[in-house]
Write a structure and sequence with these properties.
The structure is a homodimer.
Chain A: H1 2-14, H2 31-39, H3 46-62, H4 78-100, H5 103-119, H6 141-158, H7 164-182, H8 187-190, H9 195-211, H10 214-222, H11 249-256, H12 267-287, H13 296-310, H14 333-345, H15 352-359, H16 366-376, E1 388-391, E2 400-405, E3 412-418, E4 432-437, E5 440-443, H17 464-470, E6 480-481, H18 491-496, E7 500-505, E8 511-518, E9 525-534, E10 543-562, E11 567-571, E12 576-583, E13 593-600, E14 604-612, E15 615-623, E16 628-634, E17 647-669, E18 671-672, E19 679-680, E20 686-694, E21 698-705, E22 710-716, E23 725-730, E24 733-738, E25 741-746
Antiparallel strand pairs in A: 1-2, 2-3, 3-4, 4-5, 6-10, 7-8, 8-9, 9-10, 10-17, 11-14, 12-13, 13-16, 14-15, 15-17, 16-17, 18-19, 20-21, 21-22, 22-25, 23-24
Helix pairs in contact in A: 1-2, 3-4, 3-5, 4-5, 4-6, 5-6, 5-7, 6-7, 6-9, 7-9, 9-10, 9-12, 12-13, 12-14, 14-15, 14-16, 15-16
Chain lengths: 750, 750
């Protein structure tokens, strides 16, 4: 009965007169979709519980109204947080009005918009001068664009409920000026290829669609005429990219996504950018279906959602590549929109429903209802994360992120980074890797030095230490040459050329291999890292075999950091602890490391055993007695306590020329309970690693465990073809195999 | 039908001939109880699922048998862990045999016991010489006693199933020698008042009960004749206590527990000791009901269980007072026994059932079945932890642990320690406090420097740094005088005299007060700490007002450490970071602290704001410009990486004589989500604290918040009676009140 009444009421609304050509709403839901949504209410779906949650958030402001203060503060401060709250609440109020037809929501939007209409024409740019593109409501245009992306949806939902006079006034005094401000008045922001500018393109386009202002929509899609100047932003990133010939929303899609849906700034920013990409795409699909935006570029927007999901750990948190605040996950509001749309506009993939169930709410739009109904119908199947290479670059030929996973979900995520630099948010971290075991970080990527929106930390923006520490090479688990960062820390040089993907082979889940090369980040130095994730019944958990080869004609000092988590338990070398601690250097991030202890490495293998949460880890590395092992922790030259004081150890090989190989195995093993106080398998199993050969042609290593079982791994460093045939004589045995690598177990001689 | 058969079968068994006077089993279950247990099986209770779990653990060894290796290793090593596994499995096998009547379990026990019978007579004391009381199966007698406490239960369960010849052989060749070894052959271990010796007493008593050997039972209950020598153990603790006139199990109860059930070594060791206390008590109650052991000393054993439960945080983890490994909780096997027995032999308190449900299993004994049946009948009610003072000392007049709690479970646990020293496991931590907010530590007690049973950390025993760091005063949140530990770090002096409880008043849940004094730990220095947990609608969460008063005729340097968790966010003082880090001192724990930064305190109040997990914390302290603030982290002089590198800050007041007051407020406030990236209430609310008066008679402080609300707290330092009447003139106002303290809000002057 209830549904019937809804249909009847909405049928009447459908027949109200139209303005211009358009039926409202038109952005995130259409009139027809609203009718369908109303008819499906009350079945106890996730959509119903989502409405209840959203009502609870919005209803508290229905009587009090929303404050619209004169802009003053940075992120974390009152005026910033209030304007942010306003746009989030108004967008929700708009959908509630459409779905419930309760006028109180429309009134809340109208009254708030007229407060903005009063204030906005009087505003100059924000008093803070921190941004190269200062906003009016916020300290940077980015946040003004956020505001307009959300508020245009609210406006759309009440557009035909407002009087013509009200619409005209709001269009003329608030929305057209705001759209102009974000575009023609701030062209170097609007025309940039960058996640911030994607928000601006979407904002201008969406308000254009609401106002039926085709000029704004075209600017949004195709940008403004290109400037000739070479401009920089306040982080030192280039405003105009080399060879950039177009701008606007379509150019953002072309440029930012690789054919695999990887976004060059990394998953943290991809998550952020996916909202304007997808919400404007949805609006375009509703208003301009002829654009076929979801099919654009081989459906790259939908691929982008899958790329994001595959870049998460067992907790759903994005790998903290490049500038990224740790902890951001697929539970974010952006991913709630993304999953429903990927379900609806993709292949109706039922495995996405399992993640939507985890999110415990759906967006209040048509695709949210479709996902909720499918869940109710029991269509959900588990989402299985895969070992996957996500190529970078618009053509997919500029490096990649290689992700190796053990087949038991969440058991091991190994992430090797050999992607493009990632522009202003990139880190100098080529060939670094990080690793998760279940929900825990084993080797960490530091992420960004920033507390987003926490005011006491420099207004929530990037801290000075983000540049001096977090971006530097030594802050990552990759070889540092001569205590300098890759490309001497120059973004422009790093942006110009990517590493080379050499092998990514995950066909055999028990022997997954990724290998990449870089010859640019250090002049005259060739780097190749090969990582193998090996499952073998001789070992409790998958092993990581890591072969980091360095080749140079000149002598160089090499340092390989390991940012482990937890407590160092035991090593086979004698450490000498410093009696006073000094910084490890003066620049390139070394100034932020306190050197704690140092020891001569063992001749043969150096072993370091540590413990974190409930698990033990052991790293076994080939070393000679001329190598050093250093332990350190972060925190030197940090007067404002901006850095986490996390520990690290380093393998150091000084004065190396020719071919040098860091060969290591990382074992995950054992368990310890603080309740039962039982420890099992607290020691690693690997006893030896031997470098048999390391030429430009082949790298060959043997490794042995406590049961005297021995394995040999061989990789061809020149022939990557699966069809290649190889023959090598090792220790008087002739080995033959096909393809670029092989692993075999040696029979024990009796 | 099934139950009927069980009864029939067991009725037959009851009629088998008896040996001596006794019916078997007799220790943890009796023949009659077993009949009742069998008849209650199969109702889907927690007891049924517990049997399934225990079967799964034991069945894997039924065919393989249990290895009985020649003792060699320390904790964490193979032989140690195997013998430990053996006793745990055998005890379970015994109960399974009784309950299921499946002979395979009896056979497993018999075969294993005969392996021990073969080996034991040939054993010398363990090759490791680390312990003052070396065992035979293990490196210390303690573990041999553990073995016998568990295995005597297994033996009891098959005693009348064995042939007389088998019994005689095992008694003569294994169990009597073992009981003699633990008692007459190791008298300074057996006669000690200590948790280790409680295990020995119980072991000898329990095997005595099984073998109907009254001599052993009497030794267990009353000890051996006392030695005249003053002996020490290998940790430097006294073997014989001052004035100790008796030994044995009853003396352990008399001496170790206060009338409130607090155990002087602290909750970590109480948890460990509760197993032999309770299992031997149960055996005595079954075999010698005339002892009325559960009523002994005003039912102190049952009170001990409640004392333990009240010393846990929201995760059920024991407060890590004295030597304690963090993470030990009421999910331990000892507490599983304890809760069932406290239910059965206490008041059948239905709130205990809620914790038993959390434990997800019950012990396979009669009380376990009774608890499981009560849960099935729906009798469970929540267990509510209380604000409670747990007095220390056999008479309850030697200090206490004061626990203040906010009434919302888990919201705040504030633990102030003014108990006895706690013998060899005590820390020099008088008047220190620690705090939990929900499941997170806000101010930590370091606990012990030890990884129990992790072999690579010195065999799992206490590390050198336990003495040089963890026990020292500076490792705790209490005032350190002249950079020396209390009592100059001498256990004997500290053991001799306890602090004085002054006030513990929790009648008003919004204003809870604990205050204690010490005049002994520093010669010529009077210490009094008063802590107030204040709930007021002006503050988001309960405030902690901390008044630490120091009085001395001579000049002293005072230092108050705060071992916070998380990231320092902001302060109102200028810190100068050291360019090289040095240890803060050379002894008394200071040699383990790296000094990081120092700043002149503010004139008025110094504020430090930090963030951990999702919550902000702000400490506001009265300071003058002559005070210093120091930040540091643990880890100096730690060549084996035995310490956690946790952070701290310190308030330093140098060259003070007469009366000095550290007046501070700790606020818990705000929230931050790394997913929504919203921060709320990130700053504290307190703006000022003023010391109005601090005489031997009264301490008076005002404090103010951002809304200019002002409060005054007054405590009488001499009159603690609730009946006392007070009159004071403060800032020209006359204040009158009754009782030792008062808090009032000042009206603002218009």
């Amino acid at each position: 009965m209830k549904e019937f009444i809804y249909i009847l009421v909405s049928a009447i609304i459908v027949q109200t007169p139209l303005f211009g050509q358009q039926t409202y709403p038109t952005l995130s839901v259409t009139k027809g979709e609203v009718v369908e949504i109303r008819s499906a209410l009350g079945q106890g779906t996730l959509f119903d519980t989502s409405i209840d949650k959203v009502r609870a958030q919005v209803d508290q402001f229905v009587t009090t109204g929303l404050d619209v203060p004169v802009p003053k503060d940075l992120a974390g401060g009152y005026t910033h947080e209030q304007h942010k709250k306003n746009f989030l609440i108004l967008q929700k109020a708009g959908l509630l009005f459409q779905i419930t037809e309760e006028e109180k929501y429309a009134i809340l939007i109208k009254e708030t918009l007229f407060k903005y209409r009063e204030m906005y024409p009087k505003l100059e740019r924000h008093p803070s001068t921190k941004s190269y593109a200062r906003g009016k409501l916020f300290w940077q245009c980015l946040n003004d664009a956020n505001w307009l992306v959300y508020v245009s949806q609210a406006y759309d939902c009440i557009y035909d409920w407002l009087s013509e006079k009200e619409r005209k006034e709001l269009n003329k005094e608030l929305f057209v000026p705001m759209a102009n401000f974000l575009s023609v008045e701030t062209p170097r922001f609007f025309n940039r290829l960058h996640n911030h500018s994607t928000w601006a393109n979407a904002a201008v386009g969406m308000i254009g669609l609401v106002m039926e202002n085709e000029d704004l929509v075209q600017k949004a899609l195709n940008g403004l005429p290109m400037s000739k100047e070479a401009l920089k932003d306040n982080d030192g990133g280039s405003i105009t990219l080399k060879g950039q010939k177009k701008a606007g929303f379509l150019a953002q899609i072309d440029f930012s996504f690789s054919p695999d849906g990887y976004y060059t700034e990394g998953p943290y920013y991809q998550r952020y950018a996916m909202y304007p990409f997808l919400i404007f795409a949805l609006a375009l699909d509703n208003s301009k279906p002829e654009v076929k935006i979801f099919e654009y570029n081989n459906e790259v927007l939908i691929k982008g959602v899958y790329a994001l999901l595959n870049q998460t750990n067992a907790k759903g948190e994005f790998f903290p590549l490049n500038d990224a605040q740790k902890g951001m996950s697929y539970f974010s509001r952006e991913l709630k929109l993304a999953l429903s749309l990927a379900y609806q506009y993709g292949t109706k993939d039922p495995s996405l429903l399992s993640l939507i169930e985890l999110q415990e709410s759906v967006p209040l739009i048509y695709s949210g209802m479709q996902a909720a109904l499918a869940i109710k119908e029991g269509k959900t199947i588990p989402f299985v994360k895969k070992s996957v290479m996500l190529r970078d670059g618009a053509k997919g030929d500029e490096g990649a992120i290689g992700i190796l996973r053990a087949d038991k979900e969440g058991e091991v995520d190994l992430i090797m980074k050999y992607a493009k630099h990632g522009m202003g948010h990139g880190h100098f971290d080529r060939l670094s890797y990080s690793m998760f075991y279940g929900e825990q970080e084993v080797l960490q990527d530091y992420g960004a030095a920033r507390w987003v929106n926490i005011n006491q930390k420099d207004g929530g923006g990037y801290l000075k230490e983000n540049k001096t520490w977090a971006k530097q090479t030594v802050a990552h688990n990759t070889v540092v040459v001569d205590e300098k960062s890759q490309f001497r820390g120059k973004v422009k040089a790093a942006d110009a050329i990517a590493p080379t993907s050499y092998i990514f082979d995950v066909d055999n889940p028990n022997l997954q291999v990724v290998s990449a090369k870089d010859t640019n980040c250090y002049t005259g130095v060739e780097l190749q890292r090969t990582m193998i994730l090996l499952k073998d019944s001789s070992f409790e958990n998958p092993l990581v075999l890591d072969l980091f080869a360095v080749n140079s004609e000149e002598e160089h000092d090499l340092l390989l950091p390991y940012y482990y988590k937890g407590q160092l338990m035991q090593t086979n070398i004698d450490f000498k602890q410093s009696t006073t601690l000094s910084a490890m250097g003066e620049s390139d991030g070394f100034q932020h490391l306190w050197k704690e202890a140092e020891g001569k490495a063992a001749e043969g293998v150096t072993q370091i055993n540590w413990f974190d949460k409930a698990t033990f880890f052991t790293l076994t590395s080939t070393t000679t007695a001329s190598d050093n092992i250093i332990t350190a922790h972060i925190g030197a030259n940090d007067p404002n306590f901006n850095l986490r004081h996390d520990p690290a150890f380093f393998l150091q090989k000084k004065g190396k020329k020719g071919r040098t190989l860091f060969a290591s195995i990382l074992e995950t093993h054992g368990k310890y309970s603080r309740v039962s106080e039982f420890a099992t398998n607290a020691y690693g199993s690997i006893t030896d690693i031997t470098i048999i050969d390391n030429t430009s042609e082949y790298t060959v290593v043997n490794f042995t465990n406590k049961q005297d079982e021995e394995w040999t791994f061989i990789i061809s460093n020149k022939q990557r073809s699966d069809a290649s045939k190889h023959r090598l004589t090792i220790e008087n045995r002739e080995i033959k195999w096909g393809g670029p690598f092989t692993l075999f177990k040696n029979e024990l001689e009796q």
